[in-house]
Amino acid sequence: MTPEAVDVAAHTAIDVDYHALIAGGVDWVASDTPDQAVGGLVSLSGDGLSANILTGIASGDVNVVLRQWTMLPEPELDVEPWEDIAQIIIPSWPGGRFTVAGGMGQNSIALTLTAGPVAVRVSALGRDVNFDGGGPGPDEAPYEYYIIDVAPRRDDRQKVFRTTSETSKRYGA
Q: Which of 18, 74, 101, 129 could form a disulfide with 108 if both were Cys (CB 3.0 to 4.6 A apart)?
């Protein structure tokens, strides 16, 4: 079976807070244990219904694209620019809007996913640019980039494909 893109949410700047993007359901429960993040990048929330994505900046805008697939394609590690790539499984997605938003829920993008286990793969670039600082100024473009790929789960494994940023090491990779 060949992976096919099903839907793509608009590329947008999302305002993060507390070093976090949250991808999943409406009743978000942020993780307070970044040392448990797979690849120093993404962890399952306490309620098991969302992925907590750790950013380099403490607050400010980051670039995000959300893509839905029939199955996740293997990353082309030799040509992709991403510094960190990791994947987790949301074991029991209830179905409905799968939303990506900042820690406070502002500026979101969403796709509709059917119920069942969901693989969430996060690719990140630029998390070392201003670690623990603020985001870009009002006239500057965001410098952290994230692609969040989601698809029905094909296995139970969380995976780390690449960890090259200092930020991933700070978060326990």
A: 101
